[in-house]
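can u do me a favor
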């Protein structure tokens, strides 16, 4: 991988991991722009998570510290248990389908990516008119069944173009949360997933060989992803706090999906 590819892929990851427009879908598009999908691209996707994981840990450091205090000092496990409940379905689905995800043409097909982008985009545009459960004032009030539903929605994000944050924020809105609280919960629930992906990758000898062979490019990508990720989290949370709407993200997804399909039809 060339340095410019590493730079642009890191920037794409950092921005789109937290803005709910699908990081996996945008990375696939960027790969095509930069010259095509490499055979070891799935390994790159796994290790570039380090930069965005660090961005999350820095941004939510006070919230994470409060959760730890609640667990060990106040014995309040509600939010922590909900995060675990939300995480479990994606972990199971990821373990069962990991080989299929990495090898199947379905998961790198641009038309599939575009359709997934459009479907979640339509849901984002329509979310304010869709029926919701009773109002949840914050992520701390989320019930266990609702946390499980958000976790099931997270499984859909295994399909590139769906967006993990997009699917879970939409599910959170349907569970009665406002957009800001749904995003906060979505990002907190993604932390165990990201840790799991990194740990799973490091177990494999082929993955460790990939790190050794591409250390400088991975370092550059992760630094760019970290910096752009911090900025993206701040901007998206500021926007959601002020507007409480996913409409603008939905419209962007639909437009991009139409552009991708148009290019695929003209190839």
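np, heres the sequence
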């Amino acid at each position: 991988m060339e340095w410019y590819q590493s730079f642009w892929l890191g920037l794409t990851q950092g921005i789109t991991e937290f803005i709910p427009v699908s990081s996996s879908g945008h990375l696939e598009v960027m790969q095509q722009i930069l010259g095509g999908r490499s055979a070891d691209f799935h390994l790159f996707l796994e290790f570039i998570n380090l930069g965005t994981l660090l961005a999350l840990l820095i941004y939510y450091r006070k919230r994470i510290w409060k959760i730890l205090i609640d667990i060990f000092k106040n014995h309040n496990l509600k939010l922590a248990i909900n995060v675990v409940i939300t995480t479990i379905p994606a972990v199971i689905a990821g373990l069962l389908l990991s080989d299929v995800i990495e090898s199947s043409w379905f998961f790198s097909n641009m038309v599939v990516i575009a359709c997934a982008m459009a479907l979640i985009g339509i849901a984002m545009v329509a979310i304010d008119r869709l029926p919701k459960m009773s109002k949840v004032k914050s992520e701390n009030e989320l019930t266990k069944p609702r946390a499980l539903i958000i976790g099931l929605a997270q499984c859909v994000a295994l399909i590139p173009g769906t967006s993990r944050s997009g699917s879970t924020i939409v599910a959170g809105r349907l569970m009665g949360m406002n957009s800001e609280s749904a995003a906060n919960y979505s990002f907190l629930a993604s932390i165990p997933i990201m840790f799991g992906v990194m740990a799973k990758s490091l177990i494999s000898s082929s993955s460790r060989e990939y790190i050794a062979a591409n250390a400088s490019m991975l370092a550059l990508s992760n630094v760019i992803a970290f910096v752009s990720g911090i900025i993206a989290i701040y901007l998206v949370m500021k926007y959601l706090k002020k507007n409480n709407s996913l409409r603008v993200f939905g419209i962007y997804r639909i437009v991009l999906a139409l552009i991708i399909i148009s290019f695929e039809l003209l190839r």
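The chain has 13 helices and no strands. hope that helps!!
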